[in-house]
Amino acid sequence: MSSDAVGTTSLNSSAHVEAARLRRGLSTLLRITRMNLRHSRLVAFAFGSTIVAAILQMLIPQLLGRAVDQTQMAIRGGVTGIAAEHALWTPALLLLAVGALRGLFTMAQNYFAEAVGHHVAYELRLACYDKIQRLSFSFHDQVHSGDLITLGMLDLDGVRMYFSTALVRVLLLTMLIGIGAYTMISTDLVLGVVALSFVPFVAWRSSVTQLRLRTTWLDLQERLSVLSRVMEENLAGIRVVRAFSAQAYEMPKFDRASKNALDLAHGQVDVYVPNTSAMTLSFFFALGLVLWIGCNRLIAGEIRVGTLTTFLAFMTILQMPVRQVGLMVNAFARASTCGSRIFGLLDQDITIRDAPGARPLEISGGTLRFDNVSFAYSGTGNSAVLKNITFEARRGETIAIVGPPGSGKSTMAHLIPRFYDVTGGTITFDGQDIRGVTLATLRKAIVVVQQDAFLFSTTIENNIAYGDPWAKEQRIERASESAQLHNYILGLPAGYETVVGERGASLSGGQRQRLTIARTMMLRPSIVVFDDSTAAIDAATEQRIGAAIRRLAKDRVTIIIAHRLSSLMHADKILFFDNGEIVERGTHQELLAKRGRYKALYDLQLRPGDDIAIAYRGAP
């Protein structure tokens, strides 16, 4: 293929990409416009107020010119005293009335336009939050929370301002420029053309400026997103930063991110100031020409003083709306970009959802079964995390999962409530494939006590009762007693009303884990999964909690994932995971008798040694 052909292909490809981007942008703007128009009453009031305000504003220059002519005629006619006073008061009061009405309708325009924008922002904010709540774990695995927060603030604000700064401004500018231009040209062609000469230049420079600022604004938004991520991670890990005395490292990191945003802001100033000065110069140049030509025509008797006054007033009124052409163009561009990001989130496919015709989970025998289950995370090159996992757990049974880190234990736990869907095999509960039942009933029947003990910034009582906010105090206290937390809570000044702080920062790791266990014991699930949920608890407290867990396990399936064997030796069945497979299974005594990997781990925890550690890792 020749170089010319390659170049032509590249140009065609770029044209297709640009055309596709334009279509997406127009589609986004149309979608936002439809959202705004749903608030028909507010839209009607906003547009009606805009039309009346524009008409009243166009009346002011004409009334001003007429007042000047009337005053001049009265002076020339020798009118004095009360008659002269009346000649001055009448146009003055009329101007005052029109100006006041114009101010009232402008206020109404701004109020109703902002109301439409805020209603749309409210709807989008709820829709985004609802979508984030329903998106699967696989989505959250790949997206930083700081980016979602930025989307919910800056992007949402860009869409919110679309109605008031774009749609309403289109109507306002069309009327002001259209009516003003027609009035001036129809009154005096030469003066009208000269008076409007600044309009094309100002509109062009304003549009170019705003589009250039728009490009830098998008870049600035990305840099602010990076800045928010740095700040969020630093604040979330403030104890780690202090523990390792890493302030000297964190401060330059934040300074770099902040300086990147500052440099771009300086660049925006370099774009804005020269162009604003050029637009102002063009306006005053046109104003000077109108004064020069108008005065010459006034001396020649071709126009009246009131006519020249009307032209000058019209120009003054048009100056700001014409400058706003660029802001209007920017509003369209910003809404298109911000809207595409928001709708990109809202249109995300929810991979974990109710299947067509899904039925509520029906619990009878209470048997959980993994049948040849395999799983691979998306984006990992299809490398299987779990391979051909098969086991069965009946009501009243406790299944223990043990194995080295990264062997797939937590992943297996996340498959049971369908946080992820299996990529091979099936998981059934009482013979029902969990993919064929509704998520609401499935997750009501299953509770996973996460390894990361997350607490909300509220009271201890609210954290324990999170799964059942209307639970009675006695149930909350019994749950905390089972989790060996009740006595500690009673010792606090505010007791159960103590606020735990962000992510439970005021509690120790063991206290946070006990609180999440108490939260679980408040509920009555059919399956309970403890995912290494006692790792931060001392051995004596763990034994007491274990006794409560065994009482809890009598009428449900209990799965315990742990590294400490004292947590699971009582289990009815122990599964040893390694590299995503079950390599050993049996009771505690049976596995010790096999003298395999489990026995090596048992010996390692009782009497640590290099040889035993090697045996646990499966080395030859």
Annotate the secondary structure layout.
Blueprint lengths: L2 H35 L2 H37 L4 H54 L2 H6 L2 H16 L1 H26 L1 H7 L2 H39 L1 H6 L3 H53 L5 H42 L21 E8 L10 E8 L4 E5 L6 H7 L8 E6 L2 E2 L5 H7 E4 L10 H5 L8 H10 L3 H5 L18 H13 L5 E5 L7 H14 L4 E5 L11 E6 L2 E6 L1 H7 L2 H10 L3 H8 L3
Parallel strand pairs: 3-8, 3-9, 6-7, 7-8
Antiparallel strand pairs: 1-2, 1-4, 4-5, 9-10
Helix pairs in contact: 1-11, 2-3, 2-6, 2-11, 3-5, 3-6, 5-8, 5-11, 6-7, 6-11, 8-10, 8-11, 10-11, 15-17, 20-21
Query: Which whole number gives the mean pLDDT?
Result: 80
Number of domains: 2
Class from secondary-structure proportions:
alpha/beta
Top-tier CATH class of the largest domain: Mainly Alpha
> What is the annotated CATH architecture of the largest domain?
Up-down Bundle
The residue ranges in which pLDDT falls below 50 over 5 or more consecutive positions are: 609-620
Report the radius of gyration as a whole number of Å: 36 Å
Physical arrangement of strands within the biggest beta sheet? 6-7-8-3-9-10
Report the strand count: 10
Helix content: 55-70%
Proportion of strand residues: 5-15%
Query: What is the distance, rounded to the nearest whole angstrom, between the alpha carbons of the first and last residues?
Result: 58 Å
Count the helices. How many? 21
Largest sheet: 6 strands, mixed
- The coarse silhouette is elongated
The CATH superfamily title of the largest domain: ABC transporter type 1, transmembrane domain
CATH topology of the largest domain: ABC transporter transmembrane region fold
